[in-house]
Amino acid sequence: MKFRIKSKKTGAVSVLFLCMFAVIVMMGCKSQKKVKAQAKEPEQNEVVATEKPELVTPPKIEEPKTETTTAKDDVSRKLSQMFASIANSGNSNSSLATKNEVLNLFSSPNVPVLIVIYEGDKVKDHDKPTTIKSYLEYLGITQNNNAMIKDLEFNENGLITLLELRKNYTTND
Fold this sequence. Notes:
The chain is α+β, with helices and mostly antiparallel strands. It contains four helices and five strands. A hairpin with a 5-residue loop joins strand 4 (147-154) and strand 5 (160-167). The model is unreliable at 43-49 (pLDDT under 50).
């Protein structure tokens, strides 16, 4: 049997090589632990991300109707009916009585009436401004009530100080 005798240098190199190998393996283990820990964090984040509730828009809360809102709606409805009555009756005596009744709702016969002919992104185009008295005459003459009430402004006495109408256009196709 032959025994080979290793030199001291070869043994030292082998021991050194084994130590380096052990250090690399140990560092690899620590790195793997860090990698595993980092890999677990996204999983936790993913769970959190999937657990987020869906964004639900809250239901629209309607403002409680106050007396002024209800009064404004009532006046608007009443005015619309009166305008239709004037347009349908022409220049008769009943039309004259209705015109006087309408004028009593306004602070003066010269209250401006604005007729919106175009409304876009924060832009409103109005027809030539007129007064309530002129508008009532126009309704009686043309018998054409093609505008709806868009807005009303009142003074402290409850009388209308501004009337804004929206022109209804109909197309003949």
